[in-house]
Amino acid sequence: MRTAQHPATRHWRHALAPGGLPLAGHALLMGRKPLQFLASLPAHGDLVELRLGPRPVFLPCHPELVQQVLVNARIYDTGGPVKEKAKPILGNGLITSDWADHRRQRRLVQPAFQAARIAKYAEVMEEACAAESTAWSARRPIDVSHEMLALTARVTARALFSTDMAPHAVAEIQHCLPIVVEGAYRQAIDPTGLLARLPLAANRRFDDALRRLNQLIDRMIDDYKAADDGDRGDVLSALFAAQDDETGGTMSDQEIHDQVMTLLLAGIETTASALTWTWFLLGRNPRAEAALHAEVDEVLGGRAPVYADVPRLAHTQRVFSEALRLFPPAWLFTRTTTEATELGGRRLPPASDVLISPYVMHRDPALFPDPESFDPDRWLPERAKDVARNSYLPFGGGSRKCIGDVFGMTEATLALAAIAGRWRMRPIPGTKIRPRPQMSLTAGPLRMIPEPR
Ligand code: HEM
Fold this sequence. Notes:
Its cofactor is heme. By secondary structure, the chain is of the alpha+beta class. It has 16 helices and 13 strands. It has helices at about 25-30, 35-40, 65-70, 80-90, 100-110, 115-135, 145-160, 165-190, 200-225, 235-240, 255-285, 285-300, 315-325, 360, 380-385, 405-420, and strands spanning about 15, 45-50, 55-60, 75, 140-145, 335, 340-345, 345-350, 355, 425, 435, 440, 445-450. The strands form 4 sheets. The protein has a 6-stranded mixed beta sheet with strand order 1-2-3-9-6-4. Helix 6 runs parallel beside helix 16 and helix 7 (about 145-160) crosses helix 8 (about 165-190). The chain is globular, with a radius of gyration of 22 Å. The structure holds protoporphyrin IX containing FE.
């Protein structure tokens, strides 16, 4: 295990990642097998330099260096080519805004995620999870990815807009969101920026889906303003009510629009991917699955779970935490330096790109013993205290830490308990599954057979 030393007294190991080519650098390795390539890098140094084309980018592999990047949000600001390409889609919301504006935005959006409001959103979660768990037929295979995406889309849409229009919104979001997420990723990884301008069917589908999502959000905002019926307990009401303590300012309709789009894109596929991986891992680990069933039976005694059960569903939460360790949906995110700085004794010029990869940290044997094994019990309090500080970051850290972390954990715990209370999810022998490192670390289609318990 790595030992904690004061950063100033530590001798940090720097390295250039092996395998670079003269012009492309490591772009081909990153393009072909990003997970394997990135996960091999901590063995070379605490701070590893890669070349993506001519551009140097830096990957901190040691938790203390990752932490320095995450907490110094003014110097390590949001940025990089991926964020630039996301702006036409996300506008200027929490993910795309720069440091100074982000602080203001976060003050305004945070009240929508206070504990009392999560309790209200949990009613939507309870209902949607119960409906999902009763909709399946015994022994008829389902695509778990598809089902989990439908579930998280329904939960998020109805937590955002609790109006009569919600059923229409759910259907629109379920249709449009996967197309937008896929298209956004294709554009993000296109180094030429030309792909989006070609007259391709995929581009037309993307433009259409994005237009429909934008229209939907505008209609919801208009509807809310026309009804003028105060706090409906949903996210949209909280965004309209938000007032900045420091300046007294509120959000314009356009700002609310951008926050809603950001929440849809950040909150649905992430949670759905993590839930899909959880069912996949449980299907291969009968002991963890049996412990889940035992806990759910003991806590719920056959009824559907409610918000008040969440604290008692401790093993269920450990199962989800362990799935987030092995397959963190936000497997890679970026920062760009706003001025010259030093990281681990290495000088970084202004506008340097820094990669943060929870996947790399979570699979490092120096941080997590036997990192490839699915072991929910590593999160038992007596064992979790030995996990190196700042090495587990499925929700990121610092001032840009996921605003939906409690929302996502609550939703996932209720979904796992509701489904595990009724079904055993049996894997289909021979099913091959390969992590797809795209916008989220998704599993692709995953067919499993629900068996009544
Ligand atoms: C298991 C589910 C989730 C995972 C693994 C996850 C992961 C993350 C991570 C790692 C970040 C930080 C990215 C960075 O620093 O650049 C982030 C940010 C964010 N997430 Fe999540 N997220 C999840 C669920 C959600 C949900 C349910 C919502 C909303 C309903 C949400 C909304 C956001 C937003 C708005 C941000 C930007 C926050 C900011 O910059 O202030 N996420 N998420």
